[in-house]
Amino acid sequence: MRLVIKIGGTLLQQEDARALLALQAGSLMRDGHQVLLVHGGGAQVTAYMKAAGIESKFVEGRRVTTPDVLDAAVKVMCGTVNHEFLAAFAAAGVKAAGISGIDGSCVSADFAGGDLGLVGKVARVNPTLFDALNNAGFVPVMACLAVGPGGQILNVNADEVAVACAAAWLADRMIFLSDIDGVRGANGENLRRITPDEADALVASGVATGGMIAKLRAAKQAVSRGIPGVEIAPGHRPRILHALLEGTGPYGTTMMPALEPVAVC
Asked: Out of 41, 159, 182, 252, which one is annotated catalytic?
């Protein structure tokens, strides 16, 4: 089974979470699965910029990326965030390779336009590198940068990169991991299954707010791209990846397409 797992940057701030995820990813590969991990790092980039006296600006949730901001993003996401995670793999005895969308030009992007600056919108994904690393026994760990026109490095939303990679790689499952137990309903209960229309209703009613809105939109995009299984789940829970694949455990929310109506003759 091919698995694309997107890991929120805030989750990777926790040493114990990094260790748990490294162990699980290694176990999945030993079980014969192919794995691609895609991570964010927005909170870490913001902290780095604040310390450097660089102002953070956002337009509709996307970071305005000047050359100084891009330099911070490259240093933090490809450097600190990626390599702290790789160190967790090393401690777990699991082979992993840090990449970004620039490596092998595996993620190409166009300029997103507007006033966003050096921000990209994914145009093409070449999954050859994912296969090469998996076949050599390495877990690919990808930072969300892409190569743009003329070789320009572009900052790209991590959810967008993960969904595009999953679609191009023909992934069987897509898992969004963060620090929450799943999607909650109006009564605060954890919803085990939802459809895209039900996700829209949660947003419209104000039940889903903040970062959950972005997660639901990314999950909807993954479903629309034909990925068979899409889940939002807590990355800090022990054996969460195995539980999702086995269909066991009390955590996580699966998004599925709405059932087509059955024609009555």
From this structure: 159
